[in-house]
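are you around this afternoon, could really use another pair of eyes. what follows is a protein written twice so to speak, once as letters and once as structure tokens for the fold. i want to understand how the tokens follow from the sequence so walk me through it. anything you notice is useful, everything is just below.
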Amino acid sequence: MKMQNFPARENTIRLNPELSNAQVVEFENRLRQKVVGQERAVHKISQVYQVYLASLASPTKPLGNLLFLGPTGSGKTHLVEAAAEILFENPQAFLKVDCAEFQHTHEISKLIGSPPGYLGHRETPPALSQENLNRYRTKQNDFSLVLFDEIEKASDSLWQLLLGILDKATLTLGDNRRVDFSRTIIFLTSNLGAREMSHLVQGTVGFAPPPTRNTDNNDNKEKGELDQKIYRTALEATRRKFSPEFMNRIDSVLVFHSLSETHYQKILELELNSIQERIFQSSSQKFFFRCTDEAKDIFLREGIHPTYGARSLKRVLEQKLVVPIANLLATGQVNTGDFLTVGYDRTQQKLVFSKHERAIESIGLSESGSRPWISNAVLAPSHDTAVAA
């Protein structure tokens, strides 16, 4: 082939390959709002999405094979749910394989189906069928998300299936039908090294400032050193467990960072907003609530646990906020239009619930019915009504 003459150097225009288009930027920003403290993982998913939109993905392998490592409660599964909600408007719009359910060889038939002639061959459709894979695809986002959760618990048979999917993006079912995984982002999560990582983060989260910390620079330095230790611990545990054959098929290994106090505060706000959404979607009585700073401080004090991550905070909110609100609804103490305040009584050392009766003159829903808005919200001149939870 004859070489073409290149244009003169003075006509060369410098390009910026780090730019993303508006659709990817919006996706990444929305993902950052939902997932706290995991910037590298969020950015990597956005890069995979950019390659898909540019139609440059390889036709012989999945769009991306991403391995998520980190302690429990750090947001590995939550990141997949958040991506599904943004892309497909449904946080459950992905195919999940819980590898703990497939620790024995004979259980692999649940995924690929039984061969013809075996008992129950046509009774139970395989979970990894092309129909299930295509279920949530849209015209705009014509690809799928697949999550293999806790892969360290998978049986040898499941490992063999995974190697084929990650390498060639194909899977042969029990009846010899082939499933195409080329338009699929594969997520794999593992808690390997979680015990060692929990020892590292013990004592790093809390509200009492350690005496050795004097500046923000020291905090950032210690946080960076801790994340590096967690990263090395996770990779060492992975190399001990997984074969080079498997690791060579992974595009990116993403270690989820430990959560700081600031991260937990952001997570708390997200969870409180989620509870407000639940009230408007599920409850017959539409009302608003707010938590005082003292109440939020109690949630954080009791909900932050370095070993259990964000799940511990969610449990505290369910016990100390959702259950009392459910009691108020069930006993008719809160009605449509009320404005509920959750505070903390230092004398009694417990949370207190109070309301402004008919505080909101009218409450409306957006067209989607999911996000509330207040029309002509006016606090009633009457005094607060104390409510016993």
Remarks:
- The domain at 22-259 is CATH 3.40.50.300 (Rossmann fold).
- The CA atoms of residues 167 and 230 lie 28 Å apart.
- The chain has two domains: 22-259, 262-387.
- The first helix runs from residue 22 to 34.
